[in-house]
Amino acid sequence: MPTNNPLFSMLMTAMLFGATAVLADVTPTQRPGQAAISSAHELATEAGFEILQAGGNAFDAAVAVSAALAVVEPESSGIGGGGFWLMHRAEDGFSTMVDGRETAPAAATGDMYLDENGEFVRERSINGPLAAGIPGAPAAWVHITEHYGRLRLEQNLAPAIRLATDGFGVDEKYVMLMGWRGEVMLQWPETAAIFLPNGQDLNVGDRIVQPDLAATLERLAEHGFDGFYRGTTAERLVEGANAEGGIWRLDDLADYQVIEREPITIQYDEYRLLTAAPPSSGGIAIAQILNLIEPYDWPALSRTDQVHLLAESMRRAYRDRSLYLGDPDFSDIPVQRLISPDYADGLRSTMRLDRALPSSFLAADPDLIEESNNTTHFSLIDADGNIVSATLTVNLPFGAAFAPPGTGVLLNNEMDDFAAAPGEPNAYGLIGFAANAIEPGKRMLSSMSPTIVLGPERVAVLGTPGGSRIITMVVLGILDFFDGHGPHSWVSKPRFHHQYLPDEILLENDALTDQQIEDLESRGHEVTLRERPWGNMHGVMWNRANGTLEAAHDPRWTSGGADVRTIDASHTVD
Ligand code: DON
Questions:
Q1: What is the CATH number of the domain that holds 137?
Q2: Is the CB of residue 57 below 6 angstroms from any atom belonging to ligand 1?
Q3: Is 349 part of any domain?
Q4: Which of 8, 121, 202, 349 has the CA that lies 20 to 30 A from 268?
Q5: pLDDT in tens, 236-257
Q6: How far apart are the first and last CA of the chain?
């Protein structure tokens, strides 16, 4: 790991609108010649390759993969949700983050999830249409195709429309997560009829056919933005949502805007990291964690020392997340301060190698953290070296578990990512304050951290679902890449996590030995072993030195699709 280099420096710019060129690390003369895609579903990966074969570029393929995931992995992301598409164009080195995050409806209020006694009622922020933000995903697909693609939207959406029409067999993850959310969904029989066709009796291989979604996708394919955000689809969404307690207005949809944001850019020794800008907290937290561990002679440290120092760094970055981060269009976020090495020097002065600093000494409240594994990430490089790293979500599995009748659009429950009251933990135990309070039209803070690391020889593309744990998983993946490993290693490495509150190091089963755990406990850490692993990382790597591509999906789930293929160059765009 290149942490000893005195030339270490960190650059970061997070402009609110528009994106400018970031250094052209991928020179135009070098191209992989092959393409690599790793996504959470093999049918979505297939859709991406189909579009590349048809003459599309990485950006077209990203739209095809996103739309296909919306059909075949509805537990994780979808047309009723949102996400961040971090993109790097080979020919001129331009990089941008397409922000398709959901927004709070105009009628949203700061106390909308509190009861008459001012108590937070979680059911309201996670179940049914009141929990849903205005979707951003379809607007992002239109935007990416129009501004960066080579194909038409109807071509990029064709594989998804086919999958929705013909149906697909559900996998183990779908069945497992439906086991958690099915009961909520059964409150809305029309929604359950689509996603739970035989009632609660759901088995791997059962087919889900989505004709309403196919028709919604077709309207989008034909009319672009207006095909979803105005007209038939918009009317059905608003009517259906409000009949079940929603507060949407037609203008909420018509006014939705995709925003391009300059990625958080970090120079770390010879590597240039491009990662998620606010309203994601991911890039800033990754920068802070890397800054905090920078001066240590990493290879000389024991494994326990490394885990301890990373946990202490994670604790501090997540504390700042809770205090300072939110939608940059609504709050002044002290980005430059948070990511500056000087600030890290100050924070590090409270770090000791032999003792953990209790989070209560840094401020605030502990609480619950619930199980979940949804959201989705895919990584993709085309034969020309164009790159997309995208993390997409509907928040909890199957989002709000409600689809307005006649649309097939499963709504997200992203409103829960706001701080419903100051210091009130969300479903991932993350707390927040004014910067992430609910306001009309505002984007809720996210942890999604799609990342691209451009090195002189190797290029990494990675990301993962996992709620609050996304950021720390991506940090561990980046450190493993710095250590010289490829994507099979990043995605499978045992994970550990600290998020300030609850004040504990969370461990996957095989992450540390008993002795190492005892050592951490003796320094004052609470260490919690978690039976179930977390995350679903999808990575690809391009080794420019030897001209190879690698793609890997997380072994924690069986359903991923990762492949490297030669694209037949004879195909042309029609
Ligand atoms: O945007 C966020 O940070 C969350 N809505 C992501 C949720 C997630 O990753 C769930 N997966 N386990």
A1: 3.60.20.40
A2: no
A3: no
A4: 349
A5: 999 999 999 999 999 999 999 9
A6: 46
